[in-house]
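Reading a protein record of the kind used here takes only a little practice. Think of the row as the fold of the chain written in a discrete alphabet. With that in mind, consider the following protein and its fold in token form:
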Amino acid sequence: MKILVFVNHVPDTETKVKVGADGKSIDTAGVNYMLNPYDEFAVEEALRTKQAFGGEVVVVSLGGDANKETLRKSLAMGCDKAVLLKDQSVRDSFAVASSLAAYAKEYGAEIIFCGKQSIDYDDAQVGGIVAELLGWPSISVVVKLEVTDGNIIAEREIEGGHEIVHAKLPAVVIAQKGLNEPRYPSLKGIMDAKRKPIEEKSASPADNRVEVLALRQPPAKAAGKIVGTDASAAAELVRLLHEEAKVI
């Protein structure tokens, strides 16, 4: 089976992000990056699918040379090949999905895995757009997956519960946290990943359909206020909640 998994290179969750000088992007100085956490579930499920059906797992990322770090982690987890679709421009979800879909068609993928969203922009759109461009079914927020010969049965999260859905391959599976427990790369896997080549290709051109006008830091939270510790403070607290906070 020809299995593709898409991964993104995102700022580490412990990094303090600042808005760049242009007011439209983040300042990358001193920012540490990591494999997008939701994509780890996608990589793990792709590897399990290969284990069950054979074939190969190809991990793909769109971006610059920095993305090689994320690709190598995916190789260390067990992916067979890595492809970097090179492009340094700022792309919206549609433009990213367009290039990923073009590569999937060129490769002849039979199933695609990706995380439900990237933690930097939280758009949660790329997987669904890829499926639409390919004319494939997609199943989002998947927490349990069964792949059979030419079919998939998936359990997905919905508000208030779960639902079971069926689709025929080829399809796009969009992973949610809890789908599996991503493996830790072994020392051998890490060493092997350093020696594996990363194929580099120019990303197919695509136009953005969304323009970022401005990025802003969230407003600082006001300092808390202690109004007292005895019963007489209750009336003052009610007054403050009503007149200042305006929540009652």
In short: The domain at 2-202 is CATH 3.40.50.620 (Rossmann fold). The mean pLDDT is 91. The chain is about 30% helix and 25% strand.
